[in-house]
Amino acid sequence: MIIAIDGPAGAGKSTVARAVARALGLAFLDTGAMYRAVTLEVLDRGLDPMDGAACGEVARGLDLSFDEAGKVLLGGVSREAELRGETVTRTVSTVSSHGAVREAIVAKQREIAAKLGGVVAEGRDTTTVVFPEASHKFYLSASARERARRRAFELDVPGRIDEIQADIERRDRLDSTRAHSPLRIADDAVEIDTDALAVEEVVARILARIRSGRGGEGKP
Ligand code: DC
């Protein structure tokens, strides 16, 4: 079974998808981490993030694997802090906008799902491009302010909400206006506005939908 969850940066997709995967006994596929890994490798090699052909070559040759918790390994090594760090976060929208990068990474994502026989995938285009045939599709939304507030709380920098909000809005703009696989709500996805919901409530709604056989056949 494939469950696909999309939404903008900071909507809580990773936490929610991880919990849904655990509850259903499925593997968790963090597609954003794969684009972050390409970005880290591009920066490590001193390549230009704007150079689509060079970034595509890096994506095709990347030695990507996952540990049991679903965390990305680059060349067999966990580089979580760098993947989540500011430099990669600032550059990943550019690297992930190239068609050649997306083609290579989407192929890897489909390979992984086929090998495992099912996944809970989260990202920007898992409901629309990567797994259009997913049995259940969800779109998590939240206001830019609330997403910035959550991220600032997570990073323990409450004084930086405005700055974080500006970066989130910049990424939203890039992710939803790019030519290849822009972020959008799939016609058959169920949208959940998470502004006023705790993580557990979002997870409970998703699991209820899946268990009732709904959540993939139109908006509520
Ligand atoms: O979810 P995240 O913040 O880790 O994602 C990092 C970036 O990767 C995000 O700015 C856009 C890109 N991304 C993408 O283009 N397609 C996906 N399926 C997932 C992420």
Provide a quick synopsis of the model:
By secondary structure, this protein is α/β, with parallel strands linked by helices. The protein has helices spanning 13-24, 31-44, 52-61, 80-84, 86-95, 99-116, 126-130, 144-155, 161-177, 199-211; strands at 2-6, 27-30, 64-66, 72-74, 77-78, 119-123, 136-141, 190-193. The strands form two sheets. Strands 2-6-1-7-8 form a five-stranded parallel β-sheet, with helices on both faces.
Spell out the blueprint of helices and strands.
Elements: E1 2-6, H1 13-24, E2 27-30, H2 31-44, H3 52-61, E3 64-66, E4 72-74, E5 77-78, H4 80-84, H5 86-95, H6 99-116, E6 119-123, H7 126-130, E7 136-141, H8 144-155, H9 161-177, E8 190-193, H10 199-211
Parallel strand pairs: 1-6, 1-7, 2-6, 7-8
Antiparallel strand pairs: 3-4, 4-5
The structure holds 2'-deoxycytidine-5'-monophosphate.
Describe this structure in words.
The protein has one domain (11-212): P-loop containing nucleotide triphosphate hydrolases (Rossmann fold), CATH 3.40.50. Helix content is 53%, strand content 15%. The protein has helices at residues 13-24, 31-44, 52-61, 80-84, 86-95, 99-116, 126-130, 144-155, 161-177, 199-211, and strands at 2-6, 27-30, 64-66, 72-74, 77-78, 119-123, 136-141, 190-193. Strands 2-6-1-7-8 form a five-stranded parallel beta sheet, with helices on both faces. A three-stranded antiparallel beta sheet has the order 3-4-5, covered by helices on one side. The longest helix has 18 residues, at 99-116. The chain is globular, with a radius of gyration of 17 Å. 42% of the residues are buried.
